[in-house]
Amino acid sequence: MNPLPSQVDTCNTAETTAQQALAELGITQLLSFVKHYSDIDFDASQMHLTDAEVHAIAKLFIQQLIESLNGKLIAGALLQLTYTSRLQHHKFFHLKHRTILHYPS
């Protein structure tokens, strides 16, 4: 007899995939930031925000971002990504190919 293939918990897998996607897009960080934010004008710990309120605030921020997007902003973000990527590549290349010189005493 052939053993039955193990069943994958698709609900759990879908939830894990969704959590990973949220984390990669920075949504998890945004939710945490809102939930724990504190400055002179606002202290989330004093507000006792519910998860629904935190999600609604994050949704408003994302909507505001979408409405404010324009070509100049997108081009600036791309330029920053390109510069950061090149800088990291440059640092990695020099660290990888660095030679250590030993001078006789």
Plain-language structure description:
The protein is mostly helical. Helices cover 70% and strands 0% of the residues. α2 crosses α4. It is extended, with a radius of gyration of 23 Å.
Short structural description:
With 105 residues, this protein is mainly alpha-helical. It contains 5 helices and no strands.
- Approximate helicity band: 55-70%
Describe the global form: extended
Q: What Rg is obtained from the alpha carbons, in whole angstroms?
A: 23 Å
Largest sheet: none
Order of helices and strands: HHHHH
Rounded mean pLDDT score? 82
Oligomer: single chain
Count of DSSP strands: 0
How many individual helices?
5
Report the uncertain regions. none
What tags apply to this protein structure?
single chain, 105 residues, mainly alpha
How are the SSEs placed, and which strands pair?
Elements: H1 10-24, H2 27-36, H3 44-47, H4 51-68, H5 71-96
Helix pairs in contact: 2-4
